[in-house]
Every structure is written in C-alpha cells, then in structure tokens.
C-alpha cells in the first residue's frame, strides 16, 4: 500500500478560494469627512452657496464649487470628479428626473456613500448630458457604471435595484467591504 503525503484540506482549497477582483480601488482618505452624499452633475448650477435640493429630484445634492462658477464642459467636470489619473473608484448613476425607475432607485443609490465611504458617488441627468450618455454607452436609464479613475470598468446589469444588489455589485467587482459609516453594523 502506497501512502501519498497530501496537505490538509484547508491548504488544498486555499488556491480555489482566493478570489481575484476586476477592479482594485485605492481607498480615499475619509478623515474629517462627516457627510457622505451622492454628488449630482447638473447643466445649470445654483445661484447661491447654499446646498439646493430640486423638488423633482429630492435625493439630489448639487455638484458645484461653492466659490466658483463652473465654466468647463460637462465632460471636463466629470473627468475632474473621476480624477482621470487616479486609481480611486467612483460609481456613476445616469438618471432622468421623469423616469420612475430612476426615482425608485434613488434612496438605494443615496445610501451607498455611507456603505462604501472610501468610494465616490455621482449622479448625472442623462437628458441634460446626452454627450456623456453616448460616450459611455448609456441607452437607457437608470444606468450605473463603476469607474477606476476615468476608465469605466463595470456596468450594473440587474433589474432588481436595491441597496443589497448594488452593494453586492460593488463588492463583487472591487472586493470592498461594506462599512456603514457612523455605525457599528454592516449592511
């Protein structure tokens, strides 16, 4: 009888359980940030320095520089937000104010910055930024893309749009752990 020296079962499965992720995100420094929110890129900007909430998009926080008028194009604004040369990750939602599916997705998407505080989240109105929609292949709304720097890496492709499915999508693509900011609980 020949006895083979086999490693313990735990060692045999070690290579099988090691998962590689499509995107490796650098974590942004969240020190000193106390409000994690989705930023919204709009064609028109507010006239004051106060945060403005549009009644048609109650989940929206305007995306603007508090002391400067934005003079650049929407593409330049998006590239600046995405940090084209960076390796941090951003999740971008293409929505329209009139779309019922965008409206039902809003509370779930708005919760993501608290679940993944080391990532950036942006929403942009696809009807106001058709060139961006075309550039990134958005033919229907809502549409969610995961970016690393300015490069689109993955598209959320499920009809069930909940905090759980969005969190699973981000976790499966990046390996990022869910970390509810300001809470000891995980989602």
From TrEMBL:
Give one Pfam family, short name only: Thioredoxin
Q: Which GO terms describe its cellular component?
A: cilium
Coiled coil location = none
- Pinpoint the Thioredoxin domain residues: 87-170
Q: Which domain of life is it from?
A: Eukaryota
Please give the Gene3D superfamilies that the UniProt record associates with this protein: Glutaredoxin
Task: List, alphabetically, the InterPro entries matched.
Answer: Thioredoxin-like_sf (IPR036249), Thioredoxin_domain (IPR013766), TXNDC15 (IPR042418)
Can you say what this protein is called? Answer: Thioredoxin domain-containing protein 15
GO biological process terms, semicolon-separated: cilium assembly
